[in-house]
Amino acid sequence: MTSTLPSSLPSRATAPDAGPSPVSLRIRERLDAAGVAYLANDNISDHLAPGEMEQLEIEVAGKVRELLRSLVIDIDNDHNTEETAERVARMYLHEVFKGRYHQQPKIASFPNVKKLDEIYTVGPITVRSACSHHLVPILGNCWIGIKPGDRVIGLSKFSRVADWVFSRPHIQEEAVMILADEIERLCEPQGLAILVKAQHYCMKWRGVKEPQTTMVNSVVRGDFRHDPSLKAEFFELVKQQESLY
Ligand SMILES: [Zn+2]
Predict the structure, then answer these.
(1) How far apart are the CA of 64 and the centre of ligand 1, in A?
(2) How many Cβ atoms from other residues are within 10 Å of residue 227's Cβ?
(3) Within the chain, what is the greatest distance between any pair of CA atoms?
(4) What sign does the CA torsion over 233, 235, 236, 238 have?
(5) Could you tell me the distance, in angstroms and rounded to a whole number, from the CA of residue 133 to the centre of ligand 1?
């Protein structure tokens, strides 16, 4: 991954007599000093120094190994869980929570030379996340409606930015808001509508064990917010797209 770093990055902090401090502690201290939030659904890639992801992988694997030991699993003799700690560390840092540690995929926007102003929708886009409360999967579909403004981005880019935003521990309501913020920043549409329909495994797999329940939520901004007919058109288009699948 690439990252840009503030020039004021402190040199590696070391604990007085316990050897080098954990890399996560150094990163947290750096974020605290800069007054930067690092909640579960924040991206911290701008504040990671080269080589720190590799160090995080080692640190997280060590903690997962301890978790497995605390769960009284014999990882030294169980061939199935022998390397689980390393797999889990890589999965969190580079796959399911990559949206916290990796930079946003490069997304070019282009001037809207034809002055397109008809609304269009993209979807269903598959979204995969995990609930912040239990770290179990949230899997669903997302539809994005755009009334173009001065800039446009390619259709596939909506999938890329949605994947990046959702690949963090979330609650669904906040995931949709963060995705809306990112899309507004990328193409400054006159109107934006997003609808997400997702299954929450913390309801299906545990707790009330309710397998059929889905959560649907949406955010509407700009012209979609001010013009009820435009909003209705978006939901109608989504309904048509959904019935195709
Ligand atoms: Zn949960």
Answers:
(1) 20
(2) 14
(3) 67
(4) positive
(5) 4
CATH placement of domain 109-243: 3.30.1130.10
Tens-level pLDDT at each residue, the chain (245 residues): 444 454 444 444 444 455 578 999 999 999 999 999 999 999 999 999 999 999 999 999 999 999 999 999 999 999 999 999 999 999 999 999 999 999 999 999 999 999 988 999 999 999 999 999 999 999 999 999 999 999 999 999 999 999 999 999 999 999 999 999 999 999 999 999 999 999 999 999 999 999 889 999 999 999 999 999 999 999 999 998 887 65
The three-state secondary structure class of 210 is coil
CA of 204 to the centre of ligand 1 (A): 10
- In degrees and rounded to multiples of 5, residue 140 shows phi and psi of -170, -165
Q: How far apart are alpha carbons 194 and 162 in whole angstroms?
A: 11
Domain ranges of the chain: 23-101, 109-243
Q: What is the CATH number of domain 23-101?
A: 1.10.286.10
Cα 120 to averaged position of ligand 1 atoms, centre (Å) = 33
- CA 199 – ligand 1 centroid, Å: 11
